[in-house]
Structure prediction request, 740 residues.
Amino acid sequence: FKGGDTCEYLLSSGRFLGEKVWQPHSCMMHKYKNSEAKNCLIDKHIVFIGDSRIRQLFYSFIKLINPQVKEEGNKHGNIPFEDKSASIKVDFLWYPEVNGSMRQRIKSWTEGSVAKPHIIVAGAATWSIKIHNGSNEGLTQYKINITSIAPLLEKLAKSSDVYWVLQDPVYEDMLSDSRKMITNEKIDAYNEAAVRILNSSSRNSKAKVKLFSVSKLIAQETIMKSADGLHLPESSRDTNAMILMNVYCNKIMKPIDGSCCQPQPPLTLIQKLAFCFFTFSIIGYLIISLIHRNNFRKNKPCTDLESGEEKKPAISTPNVSTLEMLLHSFCKLGLIMTYFYLCDRANLFMKENKFYTHSSFFIPIVYILVLGVFYTENTKETKVLNREQTDEWKGWMQLVILIYHISGASTFLPVYMHIRVLVAAYLFQTGYGHFSYFWIKGDFGVYRVCQVLFRLNFLVVVLCIVMDRPYQFYYFVPLVSVWFMIIYATLAVWPQIVQKKANGHCLWHLGLLLKLVCLLTCIYFLSYSQVLLVKAMKYSLCSVCLSQVVFHGMLFAFIYLALQKRQMISEGKGDPLFSSRVSNILLFISIVSFLTYSIWASSCKNKTECNELHPSVSVVQILAFILIRNIPGYVRSVYSSFFAWFGRISLELFICQYHIWLAADTKGILVLIPGYPMFNVLVSTFIFVCVAHEISQITNDLAQIVVPKDSSALLKRLLCVAGFFSGLLLFSAAQEQSRH
Prediction:
């Protein structure tokens, strides 16, 4: 840890991910759109002053504001640019040498009568080398001139952002005869002089002229693609312009995926209260632990000196109290939340952008598949979608989704389409699992509802407080919570139809089907109303898809349980689910369906068109997987304990990845060990999985305390929870008002 100033890293160091993606050291760079650039630079005046290399940077910069700009005009003259819609003015001033003329122009900005530019980007040296034919006299004159300019730049830096662009290396083999004297050795000497002079003054400590040296690193990798050996290729110039935009705009726009140059956000009132709460919990637990430890020492068996036997204490050690368990859980949770905050809100650990390669996605997939097959055990029961099997299903899907997120595979359309099926499968399991429970158990009590909602939402609520994020940010938890309540309401409202009642008369089955039809009608009405009201089609179509798949999960559960009750399927150990002929036909259709979807997804060219077809085909893939997994008896009788273990903490894994495995709210990757990408992933993954498992244990422990089975105690807890959220909303409203 070398400090929190990521601007210095952005301006001076980094590396290429692949051929074109630049990764600054320790932080993430945002890719600005022209609308964002305009919002940041509104009413600003920017000046680029220097030679042809600075002119190139000028054009790349203004193209971020207006991509339609063409590189026209006098190459050896001043070039103005203005965007009247945002009142942005950007000028290029042709001063190819650091001399008296450049000094006079810079001096004019320091005088009170002339408006100072908000941003000044300056740099020049190659013309001095060329004019003086690479002589030492030219370097000496350059040092004298830049020494005279340095105090003026420092004075401007007190009110403006001033950047001095160091000279990029050249590709000497491609230089024309008139430029052969411009060697990399000479360029290094000129750069060394500029750095020494601009950094030497004591006045430069506070109002610092920023050295734009990262361009040298970019040029070292790309200058061989130059057209003339002197000027950078367009992609490198665009990268430099984007770095410049990040340096200035990140602190203004505060993009989530642009951690470079962003100051650490101040603690909110709610975060401070949470910190105090966890601190008191830790202190309270330590006090209780010390008291118990002293009591244990007093009651410790002592040795009888005469007989040599231990005497047992008369008082037995008491059981762990509810208060101690509560404080213990909050103590651990407080330490874990501290780690969350340090990882993704403090500027302590580094963050990097994602970069997708086929190997970064498919090699880990093959690795976990081998591990999953290796840890194979027999199931306790051989029913369709038994507990071990659903845990296994959740586990391998969650691991695939995690690899998808950390590898940035969303940019590869075939992988994206397959992952959408996995997300739909999670919602299918939501519909299947909750419907099956209410249908079989007939338990519509408040205790069941509170237990499920607590387990789903506890971690998210804590993170909303600690990480200062809205509830909707963790979109999957609100989604499954709402659908749990919809499923509960559908089955709980009059007439309550459960399996026990339906077995008495077949008309009750028709009544339940009628309920499901009403639910489906409401789903389609709300979903397509959203399509009409909201123009953002991708969100509308996504909601339609997810709504459909939850309903399909409920419908599948109803049909399966009805067939099971009438003994129309065989679920014995080793027995196929249906007759041999029917089983073979269904297996063949399922495999063909799988392959057809994969071929279609691999041939997809347009994400919008593929998403439009996804709602109607995703459920077919889910049903095909269920049939392949359950029709053969020997396949149904085994499961992967490796995948099942991850499946039991899949919710915690999904939520925790936002802040302690990925970074910047999933936009980047957390870097605990810089310089060693593979080792960093291993270490951060180990901590991430351990934390997720620990949070799962904490949630289970607290659920027993916060949601008691006793009705009167539960009512008191609910009143306390209502009071807590009322206070939280009031604090949140006051906090938002203070921000605005």
Summary: Residues 314-318, 534-541 have pLDDT under 50 and may be disordered.
